[in-house]
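User: I'm new to structure prediction. If I give you an amino acid sequence, what do you actually give back? Let's try with this one:
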Amino acid sequence: MSVSIKIVPLQNSLHMFGDPDRSSAYSLSGHVQITLSPHFLSRKPAKILLQSLELTFEGQSEVAAPLVGYSAVRLCAITRELVPHDHPVLLSNDGDECPGEPCRWNAIFNINVPGWLPASSCFGTDDSGVSYQLFARAKYVDVDNRKRDVSFHHRTSSSSSSWSLSSIYSAICSSQRTATADEIVSIKRFSGLPSEDAPGPAPLITYLLSGDKVTTSSSDKVQSIPADVLSKIRILASVPEYLNIEENRATLTLRLRTKDLPAEECQRLQLIGFRVDILQKDKCRSQPSREYQSRYPLPAEELQPPNLPLRWTQRSPLSMDYFPPSRNPNASCSRTFSLLPPNEDGQYLLQNDNYIFANDMEQTAMPTWYTLQTNIPVMPRVPGDDEDDSDEWAGERILRVSNTAGPLITVRHEIKVSLLLSYDVPDSRQRVNQSLTFSLPVRFASPAPRIGNGRRELCALFKSSVSSPFSSPSSSRPTTPVDAVDVITTESDLQSDDLDVDLNDHSDLAPLPMLPPYSLLYYSNGDRKIDPTPLPLYTPRDAPDNDSVEPSNSNHQHSIDVVPDVPLFTQKVCDVA
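Assistant: Good question. You get back a string of structure tokens that encode the predicted 3D arrangement of the chain. For your 577 residues, that looks like this:
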């Protein structure tokens, strides 16, 4: 007789929505299949006493880099006991229709997975990163073998003067056996909530910058644009709240004008062009940052490696020798690369004599802003330089989701913008060229999947989400500090009412069968309960009971007030292809 177990989750991956939130949780459900296979020639029924069935969900983050070495952090370890120690379960194929065939039992489980966990990811040449697994361990006793062992010890002990109960106890304990199984679990995180409609444009975040808060560089080392002139330039830079990682483009809108700059100075400034670049910054460290530790509840130090070794590792044997563990707790390693295609330089030149600020001092009902709009191409996979192997440890240059790589790996994105300005020097025909350079933080994210087949797919996506009543998986995002940039407004904001999906409104869908709780069908020892209540008579679906039909109430309809879009300013648009 042999016993084996297998972990069967209901979903291949666990979907999380919105930003990481420590006050939310998601349900990981499934069953552990226990298979009892009798011997080929044995006709006697096989019996085992299942004493324990322990299921553990564990997550970890690993990194290997030259300056960091090898470092690992245990993200979580959640254990559930499916068979109580004081209530063992007897499993037997006695009475089975096919006594020679294996018998199977399913132990249902449900684990609450914390909503702050990062998504599964691979980083580096040895596929390290964030990974999750389920581990099952069953402890059982072969009843027939135990009886034979006890009987044998009883006979041998009866003929010996040293007979004691300890010999029987050791015989029982020695007959305990163990079966194990493991299963990989993938966690995916999406921005927003799933909807039946196609995802619309993301709301915009607008940053206010002034000329005295950005980096300046001049081609002429002797002369430059006066500082008091640059300080009067105002820049409104708008980027989406998140960029769809599947669209391979980034939208950027710039609005320019001056404030309190004399008219004669306004007529001396012109915009020659601008240059854009989108950068990805990958950084790995030997230990989690203090910010991460204060925000998310990592396990205690005694539960972290090397105090408590990891159950598994993604490292290859080669990296174990090449990247030994680092002794520096503050060690870090990073790389930065551009996501622009190789044939794109990101530079846009405008027409000559482009004095965009010449009429800024004119009195108008609404201020006029000079607007630049462009779509920056993004490559999902950037070819590397064969001659430069300094960042070979980080693997391929691929576009990753922002800020979701775990405590040891940080992925950030930014758009770097340089405005090329020209200034006519007073009482001279000379022109001075100077650039204003600034960076805008952006976030790449995966949009939530669409719901195409009504409530079935809706329940499949949302059944795994178990959130706190005081928060939702799409909680507010913490503000990322930006040097020399102030966030002033959001042009369009997602209201919580717009994101909520009424899961109870199924008036236009056919009802789905609901399974009763396990406790109503079976006792705690696994025996089936006998229901004395007879089944009701069959009633066709097309013939409903007239007494149970109620007229629909129109008061449940919600009205939406549409507010017209009132412009805050006029603008001269320059759409850059």
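You can read the tokens as a compact description of the fold. Here is one thing that stands out. The longest helix spans residues 143-158.
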